[in-house]
Design a protein that fits this description.
Low-confidence stretches: 191-202, 207-227
Mean pLDDT: 82
Number of domains: 1
Strand content: 15-25%
Radius of gyration: 20 Å
Order of helices and strands: EEEEEHEEEEEEEEEHHHEHH
Distance between the termini: 30 Å
Number of strands: 15
Structural class: alpha+beta
Helix content: 10-25%
Largest sheet: 7 strands, mixed
C-alpha cells in the first residue's frame, strides 16, 4: 500500500515529486449534528479512530468485501461522526479531494477524479486542515457517519452498502515539483536572500498563500463557498500534479460488523446522552443503539 499508519495518521510520501511532499489524514471522533437550522458548532473529542487494513482479514472476507480489500476500516458507534483532519508536516502544498459513495464531499457532484474550481471541489494544504461534513446533490449537508450495512439481517458478516455511502475516499494531489521550486525562487527574490530550506521558509510560505486565499474568497462561487466549508485555492489548477496523485479509502462500519470482520470487541460509546446535553446538541433515541 502507498499509505502507512503513522501516529494515527494514514500518511503518504511522494518522494518522486519532491522530498517534502508528505501528507496524511486521521479521523477525529465527534458528535453528530442535526440537519437544518440552527447551525451547531462541531463538538470534537481528543480521540481518534485507528484504521485497520482490510487485507489483515482477507481470508474471512465475502465477495463484496474482497472488492474493498485494499481499503482500511474504522468503527463508529451510532452516536458519533468523524472529522477528517489533514496534516502536511513540511507545508508542501497538496490539493485534497474527498468523496463519499463516489459523491464529491464539497460539491455534491459525482467524483470524476479531476480538480474543479467553480465550484471548488477540493481543499488545499496547508491552507485548510479539516473537513467535517459533506454535501449531497441537493446541497444538504451531512455528517460522516457509519450507515447501517447493506443487508443487516443476513447471517455472518453483512455485506457493505451497494451505494458506498459507508466509504470515504481521500486523494492527495501534490504540487508539481518544478512549480514548487519556482514559488520558492519567487519568495527568495522578494526576500532578497536565499530562504529555501531555511527554518523560516515554511512559516513564510504558508502565511503568504493563506493570505492570498482569504483575500480572494469573495470572488469564488458555488455551494461549498456559500456554506463556508472550504478556503479558496490560491494557486493555479495547473500547478497540481494529477499523474502523481495517491488515494486511500476507508470504510466506516458499526460495532457488530467490526466485530464480525476483525474479531475485536469495543468498549461502549464515547458519546452518551449526558455529553450531548452538556454540549447543547440534540440527542435522539437511535443514538443509544450500539450495533
Amino acid at each position: 500500500m502507498s499509505f502507512i499508519l503513522d501516529n494515527e495518521y494514514l500518511s503518504v510520501r511522494l518522494d518522486d515529486v519532491h522530498p517534502q511532499a508528505v501528507a496524511g489524514v486521521r479521523f477525529q471522533r465527534a458528535l453528530r449534528l442535526p440537519k437544518g437550522t440552527p447551525p451547531y458548532e462541531s463538538v470534537r473529542s481528543d480521540a481518534f479512530h485507528t484504521p485497520r487494513p482490510l487485507n489483515d482479514f482477507y481470508d474471512d472476507l465475502g465477495f463484496e468485501w474482497l472488492l474493498r480489500s485494499n481499503q482500511h476500516l474504522i468503527c463508529l458507534f451510532v452516536s458519533e461522526s468523524v472529522t477528517l483532519e489533514f496534516i502536511s508536516p513540511n507545508t508542501y502544498p497538496l490539493a485534497v479531494k474527498v468523496s463519499i459513495g463516489h459523491i464529491d464531499a464539497l460539491s455534491g457532484l459525482p467524483n470524476n477524479g479531476s480538480l474543479n474550481r467553480v465550484p471548488q471541489d477540493y481543499i488545499v494544504l496547508p491552507t485548510q486542515h479539516w473537513i467535517d461534513a459533506w454535501q449531497d446533490e441537493t446541497g444538504a449537508t451531512h455528517d460522516f457517519v457509519a450507515p447501517p450495512p447493506g443487508n443487516p439481517d443476513e447471517k455472518g458478516v453483512p455485506e457493505p452498502r451497494d451505494d458506498d455511502r459507508d466509504c470515504i475516499s481521500v486523494t492527495f494531489f501534490p504540487m508539481k515539483g518544478d512549480v514548487f521550486r519556482r514559488y520558492c525562487d519567487d519568495l527568495d527574490q522578494n526576500a532578497g536572500r536565499q530562504v529555501y530550506g531555511q527554518p523560516d521558509f515554511a512559516e513564510r510560505f504558508t502565511e503568504t498563500h493563506m493570505m492570498r486565499g482569504r483575500l480572494n474568497y469573495d470572488m469564488q462561487k458555488g455551494p461549498a463557498w456559500d456554506t463556508g466549508m472550504v478556503f479558496p485555492d490560491p494557486f493555479d489548477v495547473g500547478d497540481w500534479d494529477m499523474e502523481k496523485a495517491k488515494s486511500v479509502s476507508v470504510s466506516m462500519v458499526r460495532p457488530k460488523v467490526w466485530a464480525a470482520l476483525t474479531g475485536d470487541t469495543l468498549d461502549g460509546p464515547l458519546f452518551k446522552r449526558s455529553i450531548y446535553e452538556d454540549a447543547g446538541v440534540p440527542w435522539f433515541d437511535e443514538y443509544a443503539e450500539t450495533g
